[in-house]
Each structure stands twice: as C-alpha cells, then as structure tokens.
Specification:
CATH architecture: 3-Layer(aba) Sandwich
Number of domains: 1
Strand content: 5-15%
Largest sheet: 3 strands, parallel
Number of helices: 7
Helix content: 40-55%
Length: about 120
C-alpha cells in the first residue's frame, strides 16, 4: 500500500506528474494509491483559503477515476497512536498524514524533505 501526501495529490490531480520522481511514478503504477482522511481535510482548508482552485471533491474524484485511489478507513485512534511519537514535526497535518501511513503499514510519497529525512517509509 502506498499513501500520498497532500502535495502529491494536488500534482497528480492537476496533471503535474512531471514534478514526481521516477521512483514515485513507479510506485503509483504498481498499485492504486491510498489517501488519508487527513489529506482530505487539508485539501479543504487549502481550498478555503484560496491556495488551490479545485474543490477537494473534484480533486478526489479525478484521482479515483485516473488512479483507482481509495481513502483509508483506518480509525483515528490508530492514526493518533502512530502520530504521537513523531516529535520531529510540529505541523499537525504532516504528523497525522505520517501517522496514517504508519498505521496502515504503507509507504508515503511526499516531496517534503523534512518528512523524508525522518520517516523511513517515505519516498520521492
């Protein structure tokens, strides 16, 4: 299973796949990606403040139809449990997105260098 960070979701949905590494593209071609519900919330907040023009549902629907993407059903308690020890980040979204990938035993495709330095299952 492979999770997508919010930045990757936006790039895939807005046909900016050229921003992804070869390794990330290979991971996407092997299996349908999974997105944490935390990413869905972050997409909504980014839309609300005008940082992304597409409505989050449009982004998610595009990913569902183009990649077979699913939203993780892992319970919030498990996500929080996995995220609590991640003291290397103070960003609540990063912490929860990483916690979700850990709780699911999944890799995480992210462009965030700080996450990649600290999360062994993160790829770019």
């Amino acid at each position: 299973m492979i999770h997508l960070d919010t930045n990757v979701v936006i790039w895939v949905a807005t046909t900016q796949r050229e921003r992804l590494s070869t390794l990330a593209l290979q991971a996407l071609s092997r299996e349908p990606p999974t997105v944490s519900p935390i990413v869905v919330l972050e997409l909504q907040l980014l839309h609300d403040v005008g940082r992304i023009p597409l409505h989050p549902e449009a982004v998610l629907e595009r990913l569902r139809s183009e990649t077979g993407m699913a939203i993780s059903l892992t319970g919030f308690e498990r996500i929080i449990s996995a995220a609590r020890p991640l003291s290397w980040t103070r960003d609540p979204f990063d912490r929860l997105v990483c916690g979700a990938s850990i709780a699911d035993g999944a890799g995480l495709i992210t462009a965030d260098r700080h996450i990649r330095q600290h999360l062994p299952n993160a790829i770019w």
